[in-house]
Amino acid sequence: MIEIKPFTDKNMKLTKSEKKLMSYIEEHQNEVIYDTITDLSNRSGIGNATIVRFCKKMGYKGYTEFKVGLAHESASHTPSDVFSGPIEDEDSTEVIANKFYNVNLEALNATMHNLDYESIKQAAISIKNTKRIHFTGIGHSGMTAQETKYKFMRIGFHSDVYMDEHTMLMMASIMDRGDLVFAISHSGNTKEVVKMLEVAKENEATTICVTGNKQSDISKHTDFIIHYSSAESLFQTGAVSTKIAQLFVIDLIYTEVARLSVGDAVEKKIKTTQILKSST
User: In this structure, how many other beta carbons lie within 10 angstroms of the beta carbon of residue 126?
Assistant: First the structure.
């Protein structure tokens, strides 16, 4: 039985759906700790709202806190879960390096296998024709968004990056059809990013998202969704394999944009490179 946090009410009653959810979690506990709420909903057949309500009845603020509690109770959870691969105590540095290499290679191979080239092409065309690109992300994805902003600035695009909720929402509220939001979210369910895209779409801005979860909340507000593959667990946030997969698809989009405006892009890249060199 799930006994993560003691109930404040021992006679608390669960609905039929909540009982079904509890049974599913008990049978798949080691899988659930790595699932997004969308994953759990799809696997269990229980709606997101019911899952959140169940977590609160269990004494948690929400699904993420519930997963952390569940992970602490998982018999199979070991300190090695925080690493980007199945690391064992007896592994040498060379063995660990090979395991990391294989994890990263698997992420790239899986990403290549699932790429939607038409979406990449159409996203690139939209970027080429936009007046301003607004990059956004939270946490590690925010750092990737910042790097991406500089890539596009170097070839002449007017770009901004937003990594806090207030700025994201303020800017989204004043966008129009000449603006483009380029969001990066591994889970695809980051509420701040989802809300920004929702508001931007209401104002007729174009929206693009690079994500590790194609069937996510963010897809409801995205014109072009570019999916990469990386098996990042709850304890591996910011894994190198995720970063590599993100940057791989971003580089594809960037290269396609540069090809569409090759003369102008090269000229701007030369100018920005020269001015930076002259300032050192």
Answer: 18
